[in-house]
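task queued by scheduler; priority normal; single chain, no ligands, no partner chains; default sampling; output format set to structure tokens
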Amino acid sequence: MPETAPNPNGSGATIDMESWVCPVPLRSVPNIVMGHGGGGAMSAELIEHLFLPAFGPAADANMGDSAVMQVGDVRLAFSTDSFVVKPLVFPGGSIGDLAVNGTVNDLAMVGAHPLMMSTAFILEEGTPLDELARVAQAVGTAALAAGVKLVTGDTKVVDAGHGDGVFINTAGVGLVDDRVDIAPQRAQPGDVVIVSGDIGVHGVAVMSCREGLEFGTTVASDTAPLNGLVAAMIDTGADIHVLRDPTRGGLAAALNEIAKAARVGVLLDERTLPVPAQVRDACSMLGLDPLYVANEGKLVAFVPAQDADRVLAAMAEHPLGARAAVIGRCAAEHPGMVVAKTRLGGTRVVDLPIGEQLPRIC
């Protein structure tokens, strides 16, 4: 029989407790849930407690978005990613743009100049060819814009009802600039935290298109290749400690991962966060926090305080860094945690998200 409980309103009716739905996936679930793909705590636990033990000594314990390897006299970066966004086309971009820009940006976040990519398409039976052609053209256009060659790939088709139109897997190789040593473990107390522009735009753009929501104006995704912006930052000669593109899980997830990797505290000032009005309004309406909403054309940088002004100036001169802003600093206090000073003068802990607020964003 279904489990029931007395109704607290005293009506005598019972409540069917089996019909209740937990708003956040349980951490001890025996099966994969959507939260495992959200880039938050559940994703991290899946890697730490399932994949790494299963891979054993064959795995590199770091397992970052990009791996840096010494090959002869050069350092190469290698990255792979998969894209399952819904809808396939949204204001400002498509799954094709994301597939290229996402991999290019992962390479750029370790200071690499992207050289080449692979593209593998998993197609659902019944997907219109003109829809696939639009996605493929977006891939080609984005690759040209990023200066990367598409050198190999694969195509598979799954039965109708066993996919969602088009899934794309990519892998990329890049040449790491000899002048840099960029890694999350290099964040240290005193570092200044800089974000390259408005946050939360991509997540709101996809959500508004998917759910048919209107916020008074069209919000377009910020998807873009960041390798040019990163090159301009490196050219300043600054000792850039960390770069990260805050995609799944938003800025909150990226900062928590860096704080944990370097065992430092991160202090944010919410008054300096560049959140555009339409994103703030949408998040307020839906009960979301812009810090947790995905971005696809933004980066966060940790640089020594003495280098911050020249890095910020170089970013401001690049089209993708025109709204760059200092949003916080690193501290020795509360290592591994992110704390934000609110607009009212209080403080709050910015936790690593468990799953994701908005599924199928990238």
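post-processing summary
- The helical segments are 41-55, 95-108, 129-146, 201-211, 227-234, 250-262, 277-286, 308-316.
- The longest helix spans residues 129-146.
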